[in-house]
């Protein structure tokens, strides 16, 4: 959640008498950031450019009363708290203000300065509390949406291979042909691999989501070589050539585990989406550290990502291609981990031409 900067309250004061406007500004300019409007029309214009926490208005104004103005403001700008200035005899105005304008408070004229200060203080505190509550509600709504997608995908991606294994087990109980046994064995291996990858991605998701950063010095030649070693057998089986280039002449500090999660998911993606008929499969990993920032590039000559899919590749469970079985969590995890490091990522890709992920991460 973004932080709300606490500063002087912004107060919009509306009155058709200029002397009252000047008097208000002179009295409260040190306490508030004061905006002045000589009419409801001026108030509406100011509200297009500014976001006051409190609007104070005189009740009796030509062409439109303060209550009528508040009634209109409430429909377009419901956030500011509304305070009405009234003379002693305006009982009807107070009734209308409560029913139509939904005012926060009313103040009798002539005002007492400390009363204005106290009302603005209370309204500002309510405003900040309301803002924080709305932010939390937005975060909660997004979390529920993500949870819905998560539960659906977990149930689908876990049950699908398990049902496949169960069906294969039934066939194995009935068959006596060795070639079928081998074929079913390969299918079991494929389904178990899918389950293993999905569970690994869930663990990564949990580590990044809940874990705190552990900062240490990072040597990128060792880090990239370690990642290459993790996938060495798989790349050898698929005949993929992987090259590493590192330029690092200064210390770089970050969380090694989170960096591993980011780069591993990108490498895994590059391996999955190679062109199956390409005799010259390539993956390039490079890291250049310069002035407290590392630029990491993971590039392949695989099937590429269509322009229409690129804005969505980091969404949870989104898959742009059905060429390889996957959970759709890997790139989501990579992006979430990268955000935790304060980094950013860009994609350069064309269908059939391969993909390059370019990461920029600051040293901690």
Q: Can you give me a brief rundown of this structure?
A:
The protein has helices spanning 18-28, 40-49, 66-76, 91-101, 113-174, 178-210, 220-230, 232-237, 256-272, 330-340; strands at 10-14, 33-37, 54-58, 81-86, 105-108, 216-217, 240-248, 253-254, 281-290, 293-300, 344-350, 354-362. It has 364 residues and is of the alpha/beta class.
Q: What does this 3D model show about the protein?
A:
- This protein has 364 residues and is an alpha/beta fold.
- The protein folds into three domains: 10-111, Response regulator (Rossmann fold), CATH 3.40.50.2300; 146-210, Helix Hairpins (Orthogonal Bundle); 216-362, 2-Layer Sandwich (Heat Shock Protein 90).
- The protein is 50% helix and 20% strand.
- The protein has helices spanning 18-28, 40-49, 66-76, 91-101, 113-174, 178-210, 220-230, 232-237, 256-272, 330-340; strands at residues 10-14, 33-37, 54-58, 81-86, 105-108, 216-217, 240-248, 253-254, 281-290, 293-300, 344-350, 354-362.
- It has a five-stranded parallel beta sheet, sandwiched between helices.
- β1 (10-14), α1 (18-28) and β2 (33-37) form a beta-alpha-beta unit.
- α3 packs parallel to α4, α6 packs parallel to α10 and α9 (256-272) packs antiparallel against α10.
- The chain is elongated, with a radius of gyration of 31 Å.
- Residues 1-5 have low confidence and may be disordered.
Secondary-structure blueprint:
Layout: E1 10-14, H1 18-28, E2 33-37, H2 40-49, E3 54-58, H3 66-76, E4 81-86, H4 91-101, E5 105-108, H5 113-174, H6 178-210, E6 216-217, H7 220-230, H8 232-237, E7 240-248, E8 253-254, H9 256-272, E9 281-290, E10 293-300, H10 330-340, E11 344-350, E12 354-362
Parallel strand pairs: 1-2, 1-3, 3-4, 4-5, 7-9
Antiparallel strand pairs: 6-8, 9-10, 10-12, 11-12
Helix pairs in contact: 3-4, 5-6, 6-10, 9-10
